[in-house]
Design brief:
By secondary structure, the protein is of the alpha/beta class. Helices cover about 15% and strands about 30% of the residues. Strand 24 and strand 25 form a beta hairpin.
Amino acid sequence: MIIIGVKGFAKEVLEILHQNNQLEGVAFYDDVNHDLPDVLYNQFPILKNEKQVKEHFQNSGNDFTIGIGGPLLRKKMLEKFEAFGGKLKSTVSKFSDIGSYGVQIGEGSNILSGAIVSNSVYIGNANMIYYNAIITHDVITGDYVEISPGAKLLGRCSVGDFSSIGSNAVILPNVKVGRNVIVGAGAVVTKDLPDHCVAVGIPAKIIRMNHD
């Protein structure tokens, strides 16, 4: 499997694969940072161009996952690697707690250790669910959603595509968070949030529009 990225979140994804005993054929990809070595941790190749990626796909299978943050950047890299012939895969830590009934996890989502996902939850494609995040029953998240450490999504709430929920933020039951929304760290969202906004505080209030 290729992990897109080398720094930051890519190392968290590597730990998922280590926990799950899935390290065979793992490589990283980064064509931006030119100061990187050819091998990470004296073990994992760092691929730096399309030719190396296609050779790796041919020799070790075409699975890849996204190890970089930023919803729009994740989408861009997904499309790039699918054009290379890659197949997007999820990585779910065996130390996360995933409900036994009615849970759907989209392709390419990364779920770190300590995360809790209850029953009847739908997680979209290419989500990032960090350490100790809690997603309770009947929650729906869209595609390219980022749930930061300790965030809590409570019963029947929803989060739209490309939105980010900050560390220790809470989305209360039945609340709808729109598309391309940023919820600040520690915020408590008590009312629906429209598309393309930034909300912070307790209770969360919109402070500006998000024009990404």
